[in-house]
Amino acid sequence: MKLLSWNVNGLRAVSAKPEWLWFQQSDADIIGLQETKASPEQLDDAVRAPEGWHSFFASSTVKKGYSGVAVFCRQKPLAAHYELPEADYQGEGRMIHLEFPQFHYFNGYFPNGGEEILSDDNKHIGQFKRVPYKMGFFDAFLRHAQALRQHKPVVVCGDFNIAHTAIDLARPKQNVKNTGFLPLEREWMDNFTATGYIDTFRHIHGALPEKYSWWSYKAAARPKNIGWRIDYFFVSNELQAHIKNAWIEDHVFGSDHCPVGLELDF
Questions:
Q1: Can you give the pLDDT at residue 258?
Q2: Are strands 2-7 and 30-34 parallel, antiparallel or unpaired?
Q3: Contact, 95 vs 69, CB < 8 A?
Q4: What is the arithmetic mean of pLDDT over 29-47?
Q5: I want to staple 204 with a disulfide (CB 3.0 to 4.6 A). Which of 96, 208, 218, 246 is the partner?
Q6: Domain range for 252
Q7: pLDDT category, 85, cuts 50, 70, 90?
Q8: Considering the chain, what is the average pLDDT of its residues?
Q9: What is the SS3 assignment for 140?
Q10: 125 pLDDT band (50/70/90 cuts)?
Q11: Banded model confidence at residue 256, pLDDT cuts 50, 70, 90
């Protein structure tokens, strides 16, 4: 079973580009997209309901053109659920949960930390507006995943907006006070893996350096490979023996992120 995940940074925009051939030519079984920034009715039929696929969309109800996730799968899932169960973390269209015979599948666009808060005299104080919401969202997700895991293994993909360790970004020392690499964010990832979730890319490739999935549009970051690895496939430990391959498709353009992939063998 081949799974792909891509933060497209606007599905209407990327689907109008030549790079959308990536989807049309894909042999994947499940494709999760993040930051779609669109509701289904805003999409062309060929994008919303491509032939041979079952499609699912979660869109923001709090702000149009914001956030949003989508999943396309060849096999019809047993069930489909949208958003997290906790009301505090609903409305932004950040999560789709599909149940398949072998596992629970999550596609998530996890929140970023927002803008930095400045002091009254305009000095940096190392706090970010949305970090409390972000960490609450992560905790709510983990509670939900752990409850479902009692009955079936878990696969989760998407844009986590956290680089877990220093090897996962090009300039760790310069970013220790920036959201996405804050100590409490990385501590959450430590806890997540300690709870029994495997970073499938590291499982396959170990400490392979300079492999990223997001590059800022500023300062020619992508040609220079000044990037961050913030897009992941995690699986719960019960699926470890089924991990066949994991990879980053950094040759694919069209967004400031590139796709990541996972192959499971059942």
A1: 98
A2: parallel
A3: yes
A4: 96
A5: 246
A6: 2-264
A7: very high
A8: 96
A9: helix
A10: low
A11: very high
Residue 146 sits at the vertex; the CA angle it makes with 142 and 152, to the nearest 5 degrees, is 135
Sign of the C-alpha dihedral, residues 161, 167, 170, 175? positive
8 Å CB contact between 10 and 36: yes
Return the pLDDT at 117. 87
Residue type, 85: P
Q: Quick one: how far is CA 217 from the chain centroid?
A: 19
Mind telling me the catalytic residues? 159
Q: Tell me how far apart the alpha carbons of residues 141 and 237 are, in angstroms, rounded to a whole number.
A: 17
CATH number of the domain enclosing 71: 3.60.10.10
User: What is the distance between the alpha carbons of residues 40 and 3, in angstroms, rounded to a whole number?
Assistant: 22
Ramachandran class of 219: left when φ > 0, alpha when ψ lies in -120 to 50, beta otherwise: left
Note whether 99 and 77 are within 8 A (CB). Answer: yes
Write out the two tokens for 12.
């209407």
pLDDT tens profile 233-243: 999 999 999 99
Contacts of residue 163, Cβ cutoff 8 Å, sequence gap at least 6: 169, 172, 175, 180, 181, 186, 228, 229, 230
